[in-house]
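ok new one. same drill as before - structure tokens go in, u give me an amino acid for every spot. 288 of them this time. try not to just spam alanines like last time pls lmao
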């Protein structure tokens, strides 16, 4: 393992000061489930780890008016156990249940998942589906950026040296909205996602779809909502033929963006099925 220094921050202000110290190349450390694996298997790009895992402000899950607040150091176990998130962000709770075994869930954090930006990450599609915004601090101040814009590619983000993701926010979905997260792996157990879908939706009083969100994971080089599919759902009555058409459209969007590759034949069928299943679960079978 490469040699590096370690320091624990007690507050966001202290963490930002440590990360911005020009004498060190520093890396935030939350759960360590990604960075420690990287350190074990190859040379690292940092000289010091700044532990932010116990900063109180980064461990909060709360509702402020019509907005949900999740600290970047919140673990997947804490997400699973949050009654507020069970009620307002089911897709994120379901993703947390599938992210790994108890050891990973107890240590891994939402901020670390976003910062690592793996294409197969389970936490990022729900955040994009929910229109989540990442709040970033550095020595110059703070700014907010949508998660879909923060992640610029596989293991690539718009974060700069000295930046710290402190928390995420997203708007509360319309009344009656439901959300789901589905994923495919190589086996029916703890597995890295080969393809995933986070979806949310709601029906109006006339029984037609008034709200739809869809964010596949591992489908494109850059994570985003499939607004092309969402648009075709709005105003329609939910039925299986519509969901199959939405699945076909999602596969078409993916192929247009990536071209045909060795994995396309599998992924276009798999994505079609995942999207149809997700929409069916939201609009027709909410108990499944």
């Amino acid at each position: 393992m490469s040699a590096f220094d370690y320091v624990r921050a007690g507050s966001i202000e202290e963490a930002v000061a440590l990360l911005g110290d020009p004498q060190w190349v520093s890396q935030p450390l939350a759960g360590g489930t990604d960075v420690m694996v990287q350190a074990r298997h190859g040379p690292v790009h940092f000289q010091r780890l700044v532990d932010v895992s116990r900063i109180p402000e980064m461990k909060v899950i709360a509702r402020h008016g019509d907005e949900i607040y999740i600290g970047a150091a919140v673990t997947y176990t804490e997400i699973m156990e949050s009654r507020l998130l069970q009620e307002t962000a089911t897709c994120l709770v379901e993703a947390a249940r599938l992210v790994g075994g108890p050891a990973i869930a107890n240590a891994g954090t939402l901020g670390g998942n976003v910062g690592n930006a793996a294409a197969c990450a389970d936490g990022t599609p729900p955040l994009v589906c929910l229109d989540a915004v990442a709040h970033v601090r550095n020595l110059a101040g703070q700014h907010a950026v949508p998660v879909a814009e923060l992640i610029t590619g596989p293991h690539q983000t718009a974060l700069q040296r000295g930046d710290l993701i402190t928390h995420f926010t997203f708007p509360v979905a319309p009344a009656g909205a439901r959300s789901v997260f589905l994923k495919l792996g190589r086996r029916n157990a703890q597995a890295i996602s080969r393809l995933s879908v986070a979806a949310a939706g709601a029906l109006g009083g006339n029984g037609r779809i008034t709200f739809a969100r869809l964010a596949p994971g591992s489908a494109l080089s850059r994570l985003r909502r499939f607004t092309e599919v969402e648009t075709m759902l709005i105003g329609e009555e939910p039925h299986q033929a519509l969901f199959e058409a939405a699945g076909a459209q999602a596969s078409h969007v993916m192929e247009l963006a990536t071209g045909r590759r060795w994995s396309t034949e599998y992924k276009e069928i798999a994505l079609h099925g995942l999207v149809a299943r997700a929409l069916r679960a939201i609009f027709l079978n909410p108990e499944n």
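The chain has a mean pLDDT of 91. and btw The longest helix spans residues 264-283.
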